[in-house]
Amino acid sequence: MSTTNLPLAPDAPFATGGAPRRFNRRLTVVGSVVGLHVAAVWALQTGLLHRAAEMVMPEVLMAELIEPPKPLATPVPAPAPPTPVAKPQARPRPAPAPAPQPQPVPLPVQSEPSPIAPAVSPPEPAPVAAAPAPPAPPAPPAPPAPPAPPAVVQPIVNADYLNNPAPVYPSIAQRLRQEGRVLLRVLIEPDGRASRVEVLQTSGFQVLDQTAVAAVKRWRFVPGKRGGTPEAMWAQVPLEFKLDR
């Protein structure tokens, strides 16, 4: 087999002298791009890029045209002014009449006493003698003292004083063993006899009460006296019935 030598293309990577130049050019482009990115990051961090953008970019002013309002097709008539109303005027009040001022009364002119002539005092009136007082009426006589009440002497009812007999003990009361005390109320006349006899306190047995009343009616008493004169008076007479043991 025979070998034929072919010519190399100018852009072939293995051409003599072309490969180093292309590699250097690519390396330069890559370094430039990296440097620009680093510079942009640094500018953003420090704010230089923003200030540079403000310096480069001019401020834009916005203007807007305002059109005037279009007139209306039919003009609206203006409202008529209100008719002024006349206010009633207040009548001025008449001023009050001034009160009459009191006129000063002229004082009488007193003449000054003469320093030479002394003032004469009027004479004092003579004392008038007082009329004598009328004599006092005589005192009325004292009323006479009332007479002393007459002394009252009560009648004497003691049976032993006048020897009056004791009442007889009823036999039926003795058999029944009846005992008791009777209190009698007796009206004694001026002659000493008993005109009325009443049972004031019973003994509890009728036979004993009747025996006592019958006995006292036969008795004689010393009458009571008023001012030394015998008088009929009431007196109490006790009688007791008691059996011997």
Figure out the total of helices. 4
Please give the number of β-strands.
6
The unreliable regions are 1-16
Widest sheet, order of strands = 1-4-5
Average pLDDT for all residues: 74
Distance, first to last CA: 212 Å
**Which H/E pattern describes the elements?**
HHEHEEHEEE
Radius of gyration, in Å, reads 87 Å
- Return the structural class: alpha+beta
Write the layout of secondary structure elements.
Blueprint lengths: L17 H29 L1 H9 L95 E2 L17 H5 L4 E9 L5 E8 L4 H11 L7 E3 L2 E3 L1 E9 L4
Antiparallel strand pairs: 1-4, 2-3, 2-6, 4-5
Provide an overview of this structure.
The chain is of the alpha+beta class and about 240 residues long. It is about 20% helix and about 15% strand. The protein has 4 helices and 6 strands, in the order ααβαββαβββ. A 3-stranded antiparallel sheet has the order 1-4-5, with no helix packed on it. The chain has a 3-stranded antiparallel sheet with strand order 3-2-6, covered by helices on one side. The longest helix is centred in the first third of the chain and has 29 residues, at about 20-45. It is elongated, with a radius of gyration of 87 Å. Residues about 1-15 have low confidence and may be disordered.
Quick structural gist:
The protein is α+β, with helices and mostly antiparallel strands. The chain has helices at residues 18-46, 48-56, 171-175, 206-216; strands at 152-153, 180-188, 194-201, 224-226, 229-231, 233-241.
